[in-house]
């Protein structure tokens, strides 16, 4: 009779193949932990322990290939669903418990964000415990575990943004912002939360404008401090989800916000994320602004739908055009704010001091970009709804900068 590992190997191969009936047969054998109608008394427990070992081993092979816990959970949820996403979170907790050495704080932060924790089950009982917590049956749990294994086995390497536990490959960077930066960013978060919650565009404009002002000032102050530090920050990276619907528009928003904050962005459409490269304080600013602006853009798009002729009628072309236009105009306004902050900082610190610092940081980010993504290409996004474009542009004007009159312009050429 095949052992548990052989049964798992056969089931994974069958799930990755095209013969659905063969895959079901292999899963049936896993259910009883034996061959056909000849189960063994300890078969299920043996299978469960072997499954957990295989999942932990599969995760361990991904870490040197650039994947991080949040990336794995995101792509499993995206491709297989929420329940397999929760299963892989339990496997991530088991992987963490098996780490032989120290683990960087950012790794544990990601696990905490996924609620990845060990529940006290031993290896032989972990799947039974998970099945009970999920309120599902054993065959569903086994199918989820095998499908997760099959997915993990087929994931390609991605850019190594930070060294994994016990590994090398990415630049060692300090925590974004540092202690003083945390106070600034707490104020930014509070302002953006107010911008998202208000139903009055003028208030959202004022709150978001103030947040951008604080971000720009903090970034420049940080750059000047780091220029003379004994161990200055180095460019790092983060990945931001760009899942459907309207993945292209979400990726464009990431790109525009990144560019305005001296970062570079590369979209991996097939993997459902954009990679943003930059210095730590700028990366955190991009994440904060992008999250808030996406909330504001979505709310404005829904209001735009209701205001259209026909009430809340939804069309994909309108929504895409709206979000594309919102992203493009937001980028323009953010870059204007950054340029103004640069001008004021240069007057205060002296252009001979500030401009070389900014040029050196931009060059370092570009060098990191060229190293990690040497074959990157540019793509054109298509806009098919003029009304959506105009509405998105107007919404972006309302969402951003306090005290700045929005420029007037005609509908740009479709991209």
Automatic annotation (TrEMBL):
<feature type="domain" description="DUF2786">
    <location>
        <begin position="183"/>
        <end position="221"/>
    </location>
</feature>
<dbReference type="InterPro" id="IPR055592">
    <property type="entry name" value="DUF7168"/>
</dbReference>
<dbReference type="InterPro" id="IPR024498">
    <property type="entry name" value="DUF2786"/>
</dbReference>
<feature type="region of interest" description="Disordered">
    <location>
        <begin position="394"/>
        <end position="415"/>
    </location>
</feature>
<feature type="domain" description="DUF7168">
    <location>
        <begin position="251"/>
        <end position="353"/>
    </location>
</feature>
<dbReference type="Pfam" id="PF23771">
    <property type="entry name" value="DUF7168"/>
</dbReference>
<dbReference type="Pfam" id="PF10979">
    <property type="entry name" value="DUF2786"/>
</dbReference>
<protein>
    <submittedName>
        <fullName>Uncharacterized protein</fullName>
    </submittedName>
</protein>
